[in-house]
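Re: your question from the hallway

Yes, I did run it. Sequences:
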Amino acid sequence: DIQVTQSPSSLSASVGDRVTITCQISQNIYNYLNWYRQRQGRAPELLIFVASSLEDGVSPRFSGSVSGTSFTLTISSLQPEDVATYYCQQAYTAPFTFGPGTRLDLK
Amino acid sequence: EVHLVESGGALVEPGGSLTVSCQVSGLKLKNAWMTWVRQAPGKGPEWIGRIMGDDYEEPREYAQNVRGRFTISRDDLKNILYLEMTSLRPEDSAVYYCVHPSRGGSVATSGLGYWGQGTPVTVSS
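Structure:
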């Protein structure tokens, strides 16, 4: 199975900060990588698909990028509603593994 | 708009069986690609299986740790997706989500954009 790791596992930032989360994949997945945000007590919600495409209705402060097998989610200006756990998911081949998550809270 | 509502979660003894359901509205279930994802307490989501269109020779795929124990099926007339679980283990305890890709695509091309609220399953004696 494809291995998915995320870093950092947690971070604290202030409103307005630029935040970056990284997802490392164990093999080439041809940009088939999704990002999700999960707020406390809710189901995950899709933010980014195919590495850099913004899901309909998602704020443009979220963006995704890729370099080889390393994928990055960037929040350009952190807002209070972004306090959540963020997961990446490889979507290249089954099983479509999720990363272990990055917990983001406010400083 | 697509709306997914899971039900049927319960407390089950180890070795027992349970079927959870997902009532689907806003799309025709026949030939829709549907996925089940679970999330254990304090853990990340775990993809456990999917059902694809009938034109696929093998329309169902499962994660290795549930293969042979879990079965995904659907009732096209009632528009209900099912997850039948047998030989349940304590490590199967989780919230089970019914999920559909955005824009009628696949997890690869569109991501998983539609999620239900989940139904909790607890396996314990």
